[in-house]
Design brief:
binds 3-methylbut-3-enyl trihydrogen diphosphate, alpha/beta, 13% strand, 42% helix, 6 strands, 276 residues, binds magnesium ion
């Protein structure tokens, strides 16, 4: 058998496990309502380091540990997609030494145990062509190597901008129309979805931003149309499994109405309602 099938990390959480692992303030999680897709804007690395009198790059280094922690936690919880905003198109405007430090951390991030032990598949979204050859190679290599794992898909958004993604979609669709492969009347929301870099995943149910800023910074604009948003002040290097559980518990306490009324949604949830 494959190693992860027996692995402790992949077992459903039974009651004993929850009692052992459940932090006091994280709330009870409903294991039947874990988001399939969690998107995270990992912010606050620089400030975390500056507060300690360290160079900003130490914050990024520490942030990598958080990525490992949160990836493992999401895998255990049964999350299917975790999309991490790692480097935006706008981040190319940072000082060269900081960009280099971040890219080196990306290169050194890949220890196979994270993927094999947790049954994690790796993917990237973003403008691949702007990355250095060594980063490109590493990413393709890791995507290939982990393609058979079918637990959590860890998606790293690198050189990513949502407006750029949508601009590419417009260009591709226009080209297909021009080539006579697609009729204008046949363009639907699904056509847009199919052309996005994220076309193989469901939209995120939950978007988390750490670091205290209340903005989206050009991340997954189309995909988060109906996501639940969760902002916390914790800097990314300090973000723990407990914080993640708090975010999920908070999400589970909300009613997703998708334009309907509260009563309609409650009616749908009831087994007595045959008016679906
Ligand atoms: C997020 O942390 C990581 C990247 C954008 C690469 P920041 O580097 O933006 O940290 P702050 O916001 O300056 O604290
Ligand atoms: C957003 O963080 C991008 C990532 C987390 C990679 P920033 O810290 O760059 O965002 P802004 O520019 O402050 O909004
Ligand atoms: Mg920031």
């Amino acid at each position: 058998g494959r190693p992860w099938q027996e692995s402790e990390t992949n077992k459903p959480l039974n009651d004993d496990y929850q009692i052992l692992k459940m932090p006091l303030n994280a709330g009870d999680l409903d294991m039947t309502r874990i988001p399939r897709h969690i998107a995270i804007i990992m912010d606050g690395n620089g400030r975390w380091a500056t507060e300690r009198g360290l160079d900003r790059t130490f914050g990024h280094k520490e942030g990598v540990e958080t990525v490992r922690r949160i990836t493992t936690a999401c895998s255990r919880l049964g999350v299917k997609f975790l999309t991490l905003y790692t480097f935006s198109t706008e981040n190319w405007n940072r000082p060269a030494y900081e960009i280099e430090a971040i890219m080196n951390l990306v290169l050194n991030f890949f220890e196979m145990e994270l993927f094999t032990d947790n049954n994690v598949r790796f993917r990237m979204v973003g403008d691949f062509s702007r990355l250095s050859e060594s980063v490109q190679k590493k990413i393709r290599y890791m995507e290939d190597l982990t393609s058979k794992y079918d637990g959590l898909t860890l998606v790293v958004a690198l050189s990513y901008s949502s407006k750029q993604e949508l601009t590419n979609v417009a260009r591709q669709i226009a080209q297909e129309v021009k080539d006579g492969k697609l009729a204008v009347e046949d363009i639907t929301e699904q056509t847009i979805n199919d052309h996005l870099w994220t076309n193989y995943m469901p939209d995120p149910e939950l978007l988390i931003r750490t670091g205290g800023e209340l903005r989206i910074s050009n991340y997954l604009l189309w995909q988060i149309a109906y996501s639940e948003l969760y902002f916390c002040d914790t800097f990314w290097p300090d973000f723990s499994e407990e914080h993640l559980r708090q975010a999920i518990a908070n999400y589970q306490g909300r009613q997703r109405r998708f334009g309907k009324t509260e009563a309609q949604v409650e009616g749908e949830a009831s087994p007595l309602n045959d008016n679906k």
